[in-house]
Design brief:
There is one protein chain. With about 140 residues, the chain is of the alpha+beta class. The protein has one domain. The protein contains 4 helices and 7 strands, in the order H-E-E-E-E-E-H-E-E-H-H. The protein has a 5-stranded antiparallel beta sheet with strand order 3-4-5-7-6, sandwiched between helices. A two-stranded antiparallel ribbon has the order 1-2. The chain is globular and about 35 Å long.
């Protein structure tokens, strides 16, 4: 059974981008990037489906949800939201993903959330996003 986030039930969301200042060895995402560009790509994992999120429901500009299967056949979900400012991302992302999400990360104007049966695999999956790194994900917790 695949878990659905708040937005999968209420609508759809999106994420992503790369820009200028350095943070944890990875550039801060460009605020104009389509969140789809930041869906993780990880060897051995399959991106089974994507859903645009109705990000406006929570005040975000765009959002995307990706449903993944790991090499062992376990299901994982990643959601990415693009906010209008870094402050909105930092203030609102934790509230949107306050329950039921194993890992929540903000970076630039983007909020990332991941869920699945193994928290270490969730961290690894999120760190595979071109907008994040292992250090950014671990520093967020």
């Amino acid at each position: 059974m695949k878990r659905r986030g708040f937005f999968a039930v209420g609508g759809s969301l999106a994420v992503g981008a790369l820009a200028g200042c350095s943070e944890g060895g990875t550039e801060t995402p460009d605020p104009d990037t389509d969140p789809t560009e930041f869906l993780p790509e990880l060897d051995g994992w399959t991106l089974d489906d994507t859903h645009r999120q109705n990000a406006g429901i929570v005040g975000a500009e765009a959002g995307i949800q990706g449903e993944y299967t790991d090499p062992d056949g376990e299901d994982y979900t990643v959601e990415i939201l693009r906010w209008s400012s870094r402050e909105d991302a930092e203030d609102r992302t934790p509230n949107v993903y306050d329950s039921g999400w194993a890992v929540v990360v903000t970076h630039g104007v983007f909020g990332f959330a991941g869920n699945g049966p193994d928290v270490e695999n969730v961290r690894e999956l999120l760190a595979a996003s071109s907008a994040l790194s292992e250090s950014i994900v671990s520093d967020a917790e």
